[in-house]
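Give me a protein, keeping tokens residue-aligned:
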Amino acid sequence: MVFDPTTGNPDGTGRQAFTVNGVPNMIPASRVNPVSKNLLGLLSQNLGHGVLDQTSTDNNFSSVVPGFSIPINGMDASTWNISDSNRLFGRYSLMNSLLNDPPIFGLAGGPSAAGSEGEVGPTTVTSLAP
């Protein structure tokens, strides 16, 4: 039974169960916090659409997010032959990538399927070694 916490005594005795139109254990919509309603709306957009797999009973939320990728394009520049007997070595590396690891709850956030913080965005890394 789901009991209404605003009824009965502070120790829980005398509380009445929630009912909606004679159906027991249903909380009236007017008693649900608007923030919670909005969050549930965001979550329900992703439930059952291939993002959240609720067929498993072992986890509260398990996910497989299709399209996880980190396409990388980069370059290295290194050796300069100054003469037959002199060489200068250094390395400059440049890497551009696009991390596509969206959060499992869509706009509601949450972790990603890969376990990170759920991110989508470009990354540029440069490195210089003399």
